[in-house]
TrEMBL record, chain A:
It comes from Haloferula rosea. It holds the Pfam family ActD. InterPro entries: ActD. The lineage of its organism: Bacteria, Pseudomonadati, Verrucomicrobiota, Verrucomicrobiia, Verrucomicrobiales. This is DUF3341 domain-containing protein. The keyword Transmembrane applies. PANTHER family: LIPOPROTEIN-RELATED, QUINOL:CYTOCHROME C OXIDOREDUCTASE MEMBRANE PROTEIN. The chain crosses the membrane at residues 57-79, 99-125. Keywords: Membrane, Transmembrane, Transmembrane helix. It comes from the Bacteria.
Automatic annotation (TrEMBL), chain B:
This is Quinol:cytochrome C oxidoreductase. It comes from Haloferula rosea. Keywords: Membrane, Transmembrane, Transmembrane helix. The keyword NADP does not apply. The chain crosses the membrane at residues 26-46, 58-80, 101-122, 167-186, 207-230, 242-265, 286-307, 327-349, 356-376, 396-421.
Amino acid sequence: MSTTRKRVYGYLAEFKSASALYKAAEKVRDAGFRKWDCHSPYPIHGLDGAMGMKRSILPWLVFFGGATGTLTAFLLAYSTQVLIYPTVVQAKPVNIFTIPAFFPVMFELTILFSGFTVLFGLLALMKLPRLNHPLFASKQFHRTTDDAFFIAIEARDPKFSPDATKSLLEEIGGSNIELVEEEG
Amino acid sequence: MASHIVTSADVAPDGERLKSAKVDKIKMIAGGVSLLLSIVSAILLFGPKETWTANYAYSWVFALFFFFTLAVGGCFWTLLHNVSNSGWGTSVRRVFENLGAVYPWMFIFAIPLLIPNVQQYLYEWMNMHRGLDTHGGEYSVKEALHHTGDPHDHLLYLKHWYLNIPFWYGRFIFYFIGLSAVILGLRKLSVAQDTDPNPGTSRLFRARFHSTYTLIIFAITITFAGFDWLKGLDYTWFSTMWGVYLFAGSALNSMAVIIITVALLQRAGYMKKVVTPEHFHIKGKLLLAFTIFWAYVTFSQYFLIWYANITEETKYFLIRNTGGWNIGMMALVVFHFVVPFVILLQAWLKRNPKTLSLMAVYTLVMHILDHYLIAIPERSISLMNMLPDVYGDVETTIPGAFLGDILAFITIGSGFVFFYLRSLGQNNLYPNRDPRILESANVSN
């Protein structure tokens, strides 16, 4: 038996099916919680709506990432091929009308920069990579990769209260409700 | 975001039909206008003045092919929906089919191209074939091409297997019989489901099976009709991208027509239960995808020709980069690709029928510019070569011929509207007994 005081992560509640999880998520959303999440073995269509999640800002990051790529490629090609060292190929003009020759490069760098922004933007928004997650302390949580559906409400949420949140989870059909404490 | 699940109780057992006095009125006005202007067009095409016929022949090809691409695109989306076993679009599939059903009627507007009096101003190679000295029938056309003494005619000799008049007529007939049979057959199969007391899945699977090989008929039609009617305007020009280029515009703009149609139908109170913002979102994505595809193909064609710099290929772009045409060509880059690409990236816009319809209208306007630049710049240069006495002092454009382009566009356009509204009113607006109608109504993406 440990005597150290542990920090409470939050409540974890299991739900029977994807549709039970979906309906419970709508109720947690309507109860006004912000710091909470659903865990399911597979993606559930429309769950983001049931959880009341806002659209990610990732598309905007990607747009500006891609635009940076376009601009970088254009400046790179234009400055080297037109301004610094004019390169005449097959008597083609060496001015802004050479731009068709730059399009493939502009296209490629747009894709490359967009791809990088997607990858690194996504990792940053998801706060990944990380070595551990408090929920791993739960003995039942590993079943989320197999056959169990969970809702976890964090203690950081301003609406969280040890009794009321627990009874809310019971009310909306949660079972095996567990108060998860961080390890160590 | 399925807030309300559509069940079979929401779908009318006998479907919805387009019944509106307003639509009937628009249809009759469009039909009347088309009929009236067709008479005017006939006078221009077959009338007394040579310059009328010559100028207006090009106007006609431009307008004909513009609306041809829209109708062909309707066939394409029907075929693609069937062959890809799609569930999302069952609610709007009938609109695809009804747009495709306009295709057979395009034959009426294509008739002028069959008549030598019109052909002589459009297709120079036909004039050369017809004017050959065959020594009283001793030589065949091919042999006669070999013996004209003009080295330029060697190209026609080599192309004779494809570019000869009987084969041209044969292909022309095939385009209309082939794809008409395909789309009318699929539409009949789909409509028969609406009243069947035991609908089942057999028609769905039959439509899927028959859409596979008929997709080839579609591909042949759009490619070779484009070769025969548009690329044939200059028989010396080569481009292997041509068919794909026309297909990209066709798929893009028929989707624009479908979006506008569904948005207007919903506004008038139809298809309320089965079409949701999700459907507009998917169609908007397709609009965006084909905007990109069009740009990709169009630029590839330009880029390869520009880079290789081969005389046989550059001619097309030389004509279109001369004088005022150059502004149009550069406008295509910005306004047919960059602007709609950036605007259509936004998700909220694609989910809103009103904003998406505005973008669809914009896309169609750009399609007019695109097809105007395909057909019309050829007019002054070809007529100048063919009739130097009449058109000798013409530069890049023929003064006044622009009015003919508008007239031809309105003539065929109002006919298109008439036949489209007619086919929309002939059957239920959505396949109400299709096994996938609920899957489609509840689609989320």
